[in-house]
Amino acid sequence: MRSGRARVAGTVLAAVGLLGGLAGCGDDGDGDATASDDASLRPLAGRTLVVTGVTEGGEPRDLVAGSEIRLAFAERTVSITAGCNTMNGTYTTEDDQLVVGQLATTQMACPEPLMKQDTWLAEVLAAPLTVTDGELSGADVVLRVADREEVSPDRELTGQRWALESLIAADAVSSVGVEAWLEYDGTTLALDTGCNTGRATATLAGETLTLGPLMLTKRACPDALGREVEAAIVATLDGEVGVRIEEARLTLSNASSGTGLGLVAQ
């Protein structure tokens, strides 16, 4: 990035299409600016908008291969990514406009094309953008956008293999170099710990997976890492397990053992 902080001011998001009902939640006519502001924020909070295409100067502009632009809105903050660093800041609404305050950015070194794309996006967002029918339109640039759930919906727990990516203990997350996986068919959880294979009966109700006794083969793990990973898997897959899926990522957590697993759909 050319600067550690990018100024994104006066970004306009009109009430049509993308805001999904902003006009219907507007000022009730009593002149209370705070009430209008709160009502306008509700359609954005909790949503992630993904750029699905870009036109610049009337011509298509390709993003860096493998990258994606996202704008993730929390209650009062927005996080913006374009494949390299993350820009974070507050936002407020004024009438039918969204105004993004000064943004702080991470300082990660990335390949030059990605860093240039970050800079380009900050410059695009520095001017007002109008939203009509799923597009953020500026004087020279048009960003086509859609909700993340449309572009990349959450996977189902069943019907695919989940590869182990990380171990979770308290607030610490550690990556693993062991080829372990699990699969759930609706009644049975099958798994490979990297040392042993096994299965357990399993019932999914909402965001809780209730497991019966875990039956594993008895092959000894050849190294300390393998033993650590298997112990974490066994501790997590015991009794009631919390399930959270976001796109292609699965998090399993066991409140009793204080352990968890991070997995990714293959």
UniProtKB/TrEMBL annotation:
Segments forming domain DUF306: 65-131, 155-257
Superkingdom of source: Bacteria
PANTHER family xref list: DUF306 DOMAIN-CONTAINING PROTEIN, HEAT SHOCK PROTEIN HSLJ
The protein, known as: DUF306 domain-containing protein
Species assigned in the record: Nocardioides dubius
